[in-house]
Write a structure and sequence with these properties.
By secondary structure, this protein is of the alpha/beta class. Helices cover 36% and strands 19% of the residues. It has 9 helices and 14 strands. The chain has helices at residues 36-49, 69-82, 99-104, 131-144, 155-168, 192-200, 217-226, 250-263, 271-278, and strands spanning 15-17, 53-56, 58-59, 65-66, 86-89, 112-116, 120-122, 125-127, 147-152, 177-182, 207-212, 230-233, 240-242, 245-246. Strands 1-2-5-6-9-10-11-12 form an 8-stranded parallel beta barrel, surrounded by 8 helices. Strands 3-4 form a two-stranded antiparallel ribbon. Strand 3 (58-59) and strand 4 form a beta hairpin. Helix 1 (36-49) runs parallel beside helix 2 and helix 1 runs parallel beside helix 8. The radius of gyration is 17 Å and the shape is globular. It binds (5S)-5-amino-3-OXO-hexanoic acid and zinc ion.
Length: 284
């Protein structure tokens, strides 16, 4: 394992794009990709701009979040046909999704999936991730050969990650990669001091990305680059480019992240480099 806890000023930067999410409606965010064609087009542009991983939520014909298995399977196939991106399906879904459909996401055979390590208040809602569900989902990723990314919304979730690894062993692929999701109303704040504290608590050898929700996007991105971490950006996490200026799409958010990574002398890594780092097998 690489020691991702230490600063790696010379290391390349993994950029994950989270283009859609489950919270925004296209009526409010017209550039949100919700159809398969829109998603594939956004994915291709974001890969060209520097993304190596795509974190995927999908929608139904009415634009509502769905975990429909045949749609997920079609989405994985279409993204693989059109891009080299590592396809990471969300197992978080929407706050209204039940545990059964969230577990069944793995049946779509993605490269990777998100795995949130605890329950968190989520604005006025609750994003439910009790221990038995976390454990079951993790065991299923190991059995299915899907590489999990551990989503950490709060410091207590880091303790749960340690418990998971102690009880069930390493993930498929052998490498632990985490994503600090910061600035959710109800989760840890999106600031440099909290980021440093969370990173210090991660398992030895883990690599990590960070994303700041809403207006915490830029401070979290700058803190993550300074601390040797990786980046997640996209309309799932922020629909604005700057105060009072809506983002024109996912591409400009990825382009900005890649530009900042380049300025930090840590340019965006390719999907192939990302597969090596994360332990995701190459496609045959
Ligand atoms: N939509 C949130 C409730 C994940 O994708 O794994 C959960 C979420 C996390 O977005
Ligand atoms: Zn998500």
């Amino acid at each position: 394992m690489t020691d991702g806890r230490t600063s790696r000023p010379d290391g390349a930067t993994l950029i994950t794009v989270a283009p859609t999410g489950a919270e925004s409606e296209q009526a409010a965010v017209p550039v949100l990709p919700i159809t398969l064609d829109e998603l594939v087009a956004a994915a291709s542009e974001c890969q060209a701009a520097g993304a190596a991983v795509i974190h995927v939520h999908i929608r139904d014909d009415q634009g509502r979040p769905t975990l429909d298995l045949s749609r997920l399977t079609d989405t994985v196939r279409a993204l693989r046909e059109s891009t080299d991106l590592i396809v990471q399906l969300s197992t978080g879904g929407a706050v209204s999704d039940g545990f059964g459909p969230r577990l069944a996401v793995l049946d779509a055979a993605p490269d990777a999936c998100s795995l949130t390590c605890g329950t968190v208040n989520f604005g006025d809602e609750v994003f439910l991730n009790p221990w038995p569900f976390i454990r079951e989902l993790y065991a299923r990723t190991q059995a299915a050969g899907v590489v999990p990314e551990f989503e950490l919304f709060d410091l207590g979730q880091v303790a749960t990650l340690h418990r998971l690894l102690a009880e069930l062993g390493p993930p498929h692929g052998g490498h632990v990669h985490c994503d600090l999701v910061m600035g959710v109303p109800g989760g840890m704040p999106g600031d440099a001091a909290t980021l440093v504290a969370a990173v210090a608590a991660l398992p030895a050898g883990a690599t990590w990305s960070a994303t700041g929700i809403g207006r915490t996007s830029i401070p979290v991105m700058l803190a993550a680059l300074a601390a040797g971490g990786h980046l997640r950006v996209g309309l799932e996490d922020t629909v604005s480019f700057a105060r009072g200026r809506p983002a024109t799409g996912n591409t400009e958010l990825v382009t900005r992240a890649a530009t900042l990574a380049g300025l930090a002398q840590r340019p965006a890594m390719s999907p192939k480099e990302a597969r090596n780092m994360l332990g995701v097998a190459s496609r045959g």
